[in-house]
Amino acid sequence: MICKRIDHGPEMKPTLQCDADAALLCDFFETEVQDRAAVEEHILKGLESSALAQYEASGNLYTILFYKNKFELTHQFDEDIACSGSINEFLCILELWRETH
User: Fold this and answer.
1) Which DSSP state fits 75?
2) Reduced DSSP (H G I as helix, E B as strand, rest coil) percent helix, strand, coil of the chain, to 5
3) Cβ pair 25, 73 in contact under 8 A
4) CA angle 54–80–72, rounded 5-degree value
5) How many CB atoms lie within 10 A of CB 13?
6) CA nearest neighbour of 64 among 22, 18, 28
7) In degrees rounded to 5, what are phi and psi of residue 76?
């Protein structure tokens, strides 16, 4: 899962260039988190509790499951659209996504 920030100068917002899995995770942030701090906080609290047990959050298009040090993201209407990775990958891409929105 690879995602990097692309700066376009002072006049434009930075963008992200991501591989397919990271792009899917960014789409999750875009559709489910948007600019709502409460949703992001809810997900981050779930991450904390996932160290002890699994935690699942469902939104408009995606369901995300956190357990141990991993996450699994699944599109609710197409099971073929999915990705998984480490919690560190999730948090790094979330931070990059925040910087560009």
Assistant:
1) E
2) 40, 30, 30
3) yes
4) 20
5) 9
6) 28
7) -70, -20
Structure tokens at 63: 């369901």
Q: How far apart are CA 47 and CA 80, in angstroms?
A: 24
This prediction's pTM: 0.83
CA pseudo-torsion sign 53, 65, 39, 85: positive
What is the tens place of the pLDDT at every residue in 11-65? Answer: 998 999 999 999 999 999 888 888 777 777 877 777 776 666 788 888 889 999 8
Answer whether 72's CB lies under 8 Å from 64's CB: yes
Q: Which two tokens stand for residue 16?
A: 């992200």
Residues 6 or more apart from 92 whose CB is under 8 A from it?
3
Q: At what angle do helices 37-49 and 87-99 cross, to 10 degrees?
A: 160
CA 48 to chain centre: 15
